[in-house]
Design a protein that fits this description.
eight-stranded mixed sheet; globular; Metallo-beta-lactamase, Chain A; alpha/beta; 16 strands; binds zinc ion; 19% helix
Amino acid sequence: MAWRFPSFARASAALIEILGGTKVVSAPSAPLGVAVAANAPTSDATNDTTSDTLVARFWGVRGSYPTPRLGAGAVGGETTCLEVRYGRQSLIIDAGSGIIALGEDLARRARSAPGQRQEVTVLLTHAHHDHLCGLPFFAPLYDARFHVRFFGPDLGNMRFEDIIAGYMRAPYFPVDFRSLPAQRSLRSLRDGERLTLPQEGEPSIGVPGARAAEAPQGALLVDALFTQQHPADGAMLYRISGGAARLVFATDVEIGPPGARGERRLAEFARGADTLVHDAQYSDDDYHGANPKHGFGHSTPTMAARVAREAGVGRLVLFHHDPHYSDAAVMELQRHARRGFPEVVSAREGMELRLDGARRRLV
Ligand SMILES: [Zn+2]
């Protein structure tokens, strides 16, 4: 397969220069030749600056690890990555293997706007491999036209910027994060904070309250809720608001039995949202069965449906599918969840939701 990141050579050269001319990188085709599948999906996205619609596109919906074996099915095999577009904003949640095809698509979109600076924002829920494994192959990082802003939680005793930068360095990867051609900035987000992304200008972080009303017209707002219901260091859940539309992204969270504090807290966070994207990795049978998955940090369709009902959301999207589950098994989760909540869909690769806060429809 042809090498897909033409800027890799420049990044490598910069790295070699830093290291005094000693060649330390392998041939690109060797360790990195897993770039994008020839049939990788593309979107019809344009930089629509007039619409007040929030568009969410799923580029990866699996949990734990990519599953090429099932990748040709309707559900897809890539791990977690969601793109949210709103006006000129392009927001990405998580850098699982799904972000690789998205990166190629962003590069394609950039080519249709020559000379224009490209701004991309990446939110990370946490640092487990299935949420980061696509980052080293994210094309905008190798393109000097891009500015990629990262936001996410500090975890354990590590600062967010060290978590991300540490993922791309020797001996794990031949290109160092600090030598990439794209402009990069990294900032920590904490529980209860709000990230404001204006259509023009710099993003800001604050705590919602009296000043929340001062959010600039057309801004995309991101509220952060940290959960300890994912081993061992927790994960960040996000609420994305654009105009009247509101989407809550709650993956890698184990709700557990009814009435727990975490359930009430998440239901409050998601109250009245158009769409709740919720972890539902395990069927009830697998969660409670002979080889129980209790304590693994993931929920069931029953738990997700309970949160959706308590929160009064418009639609529930089941997410973070187990890599062993076939299309039929994932559809069975959807049927199961509908016993507890009527509006349920299982996420699948390439699925696009359009949210306007009033009329909800699946495209
Ligand atoms: Zn995960």
